[in-house]
Specification:
- The structure is a single chain.
- This protein has four helices and no strands.
- It has one domain (about 5-95).
- The chain is elongated, with a radius of gyration of 18 Å.
- The chain has helices spanning about 5-30, 30-55, 60-90, 100-110.
- The protein has about 110 residues and is mainly α.
Amino acid sequence: MNALAILGVMVMTAGAVFLAFAGLGLYRMPDTYTRIQAGTKATTLGTILTLVGAALIMPDWGVKLLLIALFLMFTNPLSSQVLARAAHRAGVPATKESKADALAEDREELA
């Protein structure tokens, strides 16, 4: 194995750790909104690290993997925002520790 492949394996391992933390976050967080945030942020970083590691191992795939990473960077935050808004509209309650509800405040200002 060359040095680039070893570095690729290390970066992919870091990505796998972040993906495991995302799963742990989904299990440990108290409500839907914090689960969405924990899952989205950690899976985005974990997946991008995994793609970077794969690009280091297989440099010929670099452009394709970069396009996939860019697609993920745009779609993961958007999908989490859509999920959170749908949960809010459905009336899913937040935990008592949550102090602010910016979406409800915006609706009150518009009304």
